[in-house]
Amino acid sequence: MKNKAAAGFLHSGLVSEYITQTIIGKCCGTEIKMEQDNDIIITNTAQTLEKSLCDKNKSDGGREHGSSDVLILAIESSCDETAAAVIKNGRTVMSNVISSQIALHTVYGGVVPEIASRKHMEQINPVIEMALSEAGVTLDDITAIGVTYGPGLVGALLVGVAEAKAIAFAKHLPLVGVHHIEGHISANFIEHPDLKPPFVSLVVSGGHTHLVLVKDYGEYEIIGRTRDDAAGEAFDKVARAVGLGYPGGPKVDKLAKEGNPDAIEFPRAHVDGSEYDFSFSGIKSAVLNYLNSCEMKNEEVNRADLVASFQKAVIDALVSRAMLAVKEYNMDTLAIAGGVAANSALRASLEAECGRAGVRFYSPSPIFCTDNAAMIGVAAYYEYIKGVRHGWDLNAVPNLRLGERV
User: Residue 316 and residue 20: Cα distance in Å, rounded?
Assistant: First the structure.
């Protein structure tokens, strides 16, 4: 039996193995029969995290929904996780199913877009079927379909968008497209019922590093961004350079705990005239230069000290700008989001700084930091109750900007 689950994900919930078995269900009113071969699906289900926020379903112009609860079936496929979730009233996670491709892409040192798209096509129906089953509902109980339509890998996005449109069309359900980064920010609402806009959010992932002013549900203003590499991208490149492999972020975080973060002084870049912007290409280059220098001098490299020092430099840049934004925008709340938000040192540093400054700090559990459909369902709920609907011409937008609507 091949175990393809990423070890770091195993704590997140029930792990179910599909070993060459047949899944039969109903999707879009049509019977589905799909063979599964050696895939592991990770689920995180039935987390009732807050009582209903909405006592009455807002009319959607489609078929009538018999319940006062708003149930969103959410789909996420922007990169290398195929995910589906059922969210009730924006804050209750009834199911959250994730099929990860990490082991599949590890041999290539990163995500291969074509392979990711093909795997999404294999997994999308079984993942949705499991999400509905874990939630104890059918498509007839669903109020609306939420789906990530950007940013991300275009082929991967298309799989989720096509699936969502097919279900919405066949079941006469409203379709709500969601921005992937807005989903990450919305992940904070799942476990923190007291969190409400406005607040500042630090978004840190493999493809994005943003400081965002969250003015209201679905209303965002980017006040700072990276000028080159995203923080997560820098983590991956440094991890590869020191031989840790892919995915780099969790491996750097783990090894850094064994090292001295003050052993090597790496630069902290400042962007002239843009006090909230970031730059990580210089830190990455400094690490590569250090490694080359040690190789030329035939000196041994202490990898733990190196990655600990690198991580501290990145965290210092992130924390200093986040705290500056909170102060200058007169905010009393800071929330973190994105895959790198799972980094233990970053979370500890932000929590400590917020504590000293009297600022409330919020962070999602690690399972909600990585790509998942629960966060998409939360974002879709707030879009849905505002009356946002998308037509059958909804398409994947790989370079969709935060706050942009189509």
Answer: 48
pLDDT average, residue stretch 189-200: 96
State the virtual CA torsion across 272, 308, 8, 181 in degrees, nearest 10. -10
The 10 Å Cβ neighbour count of residue 308 is 24
Cis ω before 247 (30° cut-off from 0): yes
The 3-state DSSP class for residue 129 equals helix
Neighbour-count burial for 138-167, b at 16+ CB within 10 Å, e otherwise: ebebbbbbbbbbbbbbbbbbbbbbbbbbbb
- Asked if residue 186 lies in contact with residue 379, where contact means CB atoms within 8 angstroms, the answer is yes
b (16+ CB within 10 A) / e for 197-230: bebbbbbbbbbbbbbbbbeebbebebbbbbeebb
d(CA 83, CA 99): 6
Which two three-digit tokens encode residue 15?
A: 């792990």
Structure tokens at 155: 């082929």
Mean pLDDT of 16-41: 33
ω into 151 cis (within 30 of 0): yes
- Measured CA distances, 322 to 170, 200, 348 (Å): 45, 8, 14
Give the range with max mean pLDDT: 174-183, 201-210, 228-237, 239-248.
174-183
Q: What is the pLDDT of residues 155-192, one digit of tens each?
A: 999 999 999 999 999 999 999 999 999 999 999 999 99
27 token code pair? 């999707």
Q: What is the pLDDT of residues 128-154, one digit of tens each?
A: 999 999 999 999 999 999 999 999 999
Strand partners, 87: 72, 93
Residue 68: strand, helix, or coil? coil
Tell me the two tokens of residue 332: 């009393």
Residue 399: Cβ within 10 Å count? 9
Burial of 83 (0-12, 13-18, 19+ CB in 10 A): buried
What's CA 393's distance to the chain center, in Å? 25
Residue of 218 and 3 predicted with greater confidence: 218
pLDDT, tens only, 66-94: 468 999 999 999 988 999 999 999 999 99
SS (H, E, C) 230-261: CHHHHHHHHHHHCCCCCCHHHHHHHHHCCCCC
Return the closest-CA partner of residue 29 out of 153, 135, 172. Answer: 172
